[in-house]
Amino acid sequence: MLLNIKNIDVAYDDYQVIWNVSLNVKEGEIVALLGPNGSGKSTILNSISGLIKIKSGEINFNKIQINKYETYQRVGVGISHVLERRRVFPYLTVLQNLLLGAYHEKAKTEREKSLQNIYNFFPKLKDRSNQIANTMSGGEQQMLAIGRGLMGMPKLLMVDEPFLGLAPLVIEDLKLIFKKIAERGISILFVEQNVRLALSMAHRGYVLESGRLVIDGVSNDLINSKELKRVFLGS
Amino acid sequence: MTSQVIIQAIISGILMGLIYALIAAGLSLIFGLMEIVNFAHGDHLMLSMFSTFWFWMLFGIDPIFSIPLTIILMAFLGVFTHYFIIRKILNSTMLIQICATFGLAVTIRALAQFFFTPDFRTIKNPIIQGKFEVYGVFIGYPQLFASFVCLFAFILLYLFVTKTETGTALQATSQDRQAAEILGIPSNKMFALGWAIGLSCVAVAGSMLSNYYYVFPDVGVNFSLFAFVAVALGGFGSINGSLIAGVIIGIVESVGGLLIDPSYKLLYVFAVYLLVVILRPQGIFGRY
User: Fold this and answer.
1) CA distances, B254 to each of A173, B232, B258, B259 (Å)
2) Interface with chain B: mutation pick from A103, A146, A159, highest number of B CBs within 10 Å
């Protein structure tokens, strides 16, 4: 088990948003985190990368308990987080953005190799390596954000809403790339609102409702589940 | 009025403006990094000038040799300021942040008056003194030297921020703190570094100013006002902007004082500031 979350509670000040959630991700697995707006999907990713501290419970990664780790230490154990809305550094070049992805010691030594790998995944980034990031299109920025995440040589890549606002063709490309990344043994945990799209890519899925886990299972079972329809359609 | 007098005013303005530029660059760097305005910036400048003065007074070290010592002192002060004051108010409301750095300014100035007395002091017979004449225009050696050193420091700062890996990480932190943190860039250390660099800028400017300027506890007030105007004019967070803006303000101050009356020179500087606020609130190179 690569990532193992046990009974976490998360609160913003006094307002609790995550209730007793447990989930796990195995090596090379693609896992979707589903749920309507405000159900706590992003909060879970944020607590794994340390942007939010959990109130109780345990987060274990690669057999290390990382609850107490600062955010900047977590990339060193193998967690890369691609934030919602890409969040590339707007006034730096594509290359500068990518190189910062390999800022921590372990990744720095393999920097050139990782860069070539990422250019293979996203040839466009190579052509545009000297372009300022905020002058690129949404899809290109998403590729840059994912590339920057991969530069950290993660064992787990977490992506928040990877397909938001992208053209259908770009979405298909991106899905293929995610599959290739997973084939290299990198696990992917991603948040998505479009259930059909998410489950067409993921091996398994977890469904959240108001901060609680309601169902989980392999994609084929989930897609036909009545409970899933109830969560999203309210019937 | 002859053209010589105007040229004289412009040259004096440029020489002073390069010093304003370096002071403003420090202020701008700190603001760009953590969106905190250091209202004590002028008082940090005053401390740098006193540091230079005391190195000369007590140990006989000339200002041109005490620059590195003053830089080290001020950089440490910057790191301390970050860890003991700024870190605690990073996520507070703006009013609290203003009160914190403004309070720091008042404290530093009061302590300086208490320990150093309000007397005006000068460094007598520094190595660099005197002036020379070109075509009827007089240029003081200390002023010329000061502006060269400040420009050199400015170029070093620019190269550090844009060309080195740590500098890029500093920029990344200022553009998106959370995204940087996730990549393994500890923002707290970057902030401390930002304070160290910001106060090193005033250390260089202060050392050079004390070569020919009076040293007293209130000396920083006007300089910090000019630095604020320069930062607003150049664009908050833009280091290049502060260079151009600093020089513009130096020239406006000096030529304006010449054309009407030197006692109104603050007026021109603030008139420029008002124009900026009305016409281009984000400044020349501003992003905010």
Assistant:
1) 61, 19, 6, 9
2) A103
* In-domain check, residue A225: yes
Residues in chain B with pLDDT values less than 50: none
Smallest Cβ–Cβ distance between B172 and the set A71, A73, A89 belongs to A89
H or E element: which one contains B120? Answer: none
Q: Give contacts of B183 with chain A, Cβ < 8 Å.
A: 72, 75, 100-101, 103-104, 148, 152
Continuous segment of H or E residues that includes residue A11: strand A3-12
Q: Is residue A21 part of a domain?
A: yes
Burial A153-168 (b: 16+ CB within 10 A, else e): bbbbbbbbbbbbebee
- Chain B interface disruption, residue of A43, A47, A49, A71, most B CBs within 10 A: A71
Helix (H, G, I), strand (E, B) or coil at A188: strand
Nearest to A72 among B165, B184, B287 (CB): B184
What is the CATH classification number for the domain harbouring A64?
A: 3.40.50.300
CB B213 within 8 A of CB B147: no
- State the average pLDDT over residues A32-51: 95
Helix orientation angle between B63-81 and B187-209, rounded to the nearest 10 degrees:
150
A54 in any annotated domain: yes
CB-side exposure of B94: number of CA atoms within 13 Å? 3
Set of chain A residues whose Cβ sits within 8 Å of the Cβ of B185: 72, 100, 103
Neighbours of B192 (CB within 10 A): 20
Q: Which residues on chain A are in Cβ contact (under 8 Å) with B287? A: 91
Number of Cα atoms under 13 Å in the Cβ half of residue B66: 30
Q: How far apart are CA B254 and CA A122, in angstroms?
A: 55
Q: Kind and range of the H or E element at B7?
A: helix B3-34
Residues of chain B in contact with residue A75, where contact means CB-CB under 8 angstroms, are 182-184
Q: In this prediction, does ipTM exceed 0.90?
A: yes
Q: Considering its fold, how many domains does chain A have in total? A: 1
Residue A55: what residue type?
Answer: K
Number of residue pairs across A and B with CB atoms under 8 Å? 66
pLDDT in tens, A137-146: 999 999 999 9
The whole domain housing A205 covers 1-78+190-235
Nearest residue to A75 via CA among A153, A142, A4, A5: A153
pLDDT at B166: 97
Section A73-79 average pLDDT: 96
CB contact A53 to B (< 8 Å): no
A215 occurs within a structural domain: yes
pLDDT at residue A235, as a whole number: 62
Query: What's the half-sphere exposure (Cβ side, CA atoms, 13 Å) at A228?
Result: 20
pTM exceeding 0.90: yes
* pLDDT recorded at residue B1: 61
Contact status of B183 with chain A (Cβ, < 8 Å): yes
CATH topology of domain B3-117+142-279: ABC transporter involved in vitamin B12 uptake, BtuC (1.10.3470)
What does pLDDT average to over chain A?
Answer: 95
